[in-house]
Task: structure prediction
Amino acid sequence: MESLSNRKKVIEQKPMNFWERMYLPAIAKGLGITIRHFFKKIPTVKYPEEKRPYAKNFRGLHSLKRDEEGRERCTACGLCALSCPAEAITMTAAERTKGEESLYREEKYASVYEINMLRCIFCGLCEEACPKEAIYLDGPHVTASYLRKDFIYGKDKLVEPAFDIKKLNQEKAN
Amino acid sequence: MEGAFILEKLILVVIVFTISLVIAMYSTLAERKIAGFMQDRYGPNRAGFGGILQPLCDGGKFFFKEEIIPAGAHKALFVLGPTLAIITACISSAVIPWGQTLTFGDRVVTLQVADINVGVLYIFGVVALGVYGIMIGGWASNNKFSLMGAIRAASQSISYEIGMGLSIIALLMVSGTLSMSEIVAQQSGFVNWNIWVQPIGFLIFMTCAFAECNRVPFDLPECETELVGGYHTEYSSMKLGLYMFSEYINMFVSSALMAALYFGGYNFPFMYDLGLSQNWITIIGVLVFFIKIFGFIFFFMWIRWTLPRFRYDQLMNLGWKMLIPLAIANIVLTGIVTIIKDTYFS
Result:
């Protein structure tokens, strides 16, 4: 039958000739291959000192974003938790009180926001589900730990560090 | 025997002993480094500059590991196994001529521990004893896997001993002596090296040396896949370390042997045409000899990371059906050529 891909190879098992039975030419060839590797540039990354940059589309640790004025974007709508196939995200919503306008963008915010990193499969569906562009998987790897409870990441680990918007604007102007 | 002679030999023994231990130590590092480079990675590079302290760390680790002697083992023989292995490995370097003579005032010092006239036979005898270390160790462990590993090792060593002995006979027919110093002295310069007259013999000798040292592709005594670990399954801490160490010393000694028997030992091209004094020729000769030895050690490691391991029946086939007939043919060929040369060209 005609092969569809033309990549089919017929294996032939003809008896080895004298030189093949001697093995020496094959050994010499093999030695040539290994010695070539001896002089090659080594692609190894010396890990703890030298780190390889992540790929652009790498999905790592989640971070909860802030808006231009440094307020938390998340409104605790729960869409991320709903879209999560591993059910790793839990949250508790709370209402913004007076005086907290500089902390949270909308009237509702997440007082508790937890992601269980042992459950998370880093699919990125939370990122896609979020209507407020509040969650992104743009961090590094999850670090190792001895205790299971250390893998439940709360807001202390997830929310972007606060920044002073005035200072940033000033720096931009300069 | 005068005191100075004994002192001189004693110093030489200590130096040779130290050198072979240090080379064996650093062979372990070199092996891992070479393995790394051949597999496109760095070898050990954490301990000291470029991993230079790695052998010391390994040694320290070996000494501090828990030492276990199985309950059913024969204690004395269990300890004797690695001892015998390391002793036979160490004493085989006694007859290797490391260089010519050094002159201090009116005292002429030969750089060879024992210049006996049956040097080659001595080495063969000692190397053959080496298998007792493995055999006793495997038997004393009271473990059937160890015993089977030991039996494999013993039969491999004995099989390849024959090929090795036969390959050397052709060389002895050419050189006409059993004395190591005499064989090396005959190969002065470059054109007289035995490799040019005995290439087949060298090939057989080298293959058998690989098998005798239990190196890849003939490292069947250690068989992690079939027999847990081979003859040293029950060994731990420094007793295992001694077995491994003796393997590396064996590698060093057989490299020295190959360099001495076939590659001219301390001889180097144009050694008498440079107008150097005898002491300088000797010193350069020793260095050249060590360069050759290191070359062979590198070759051992190079082969290790190139060739896969033999299957046991393939190993026996190669030993008995290929190398031994080839060695005998080489003897006959050498004999014919010698007769023709003596009758028509002398």
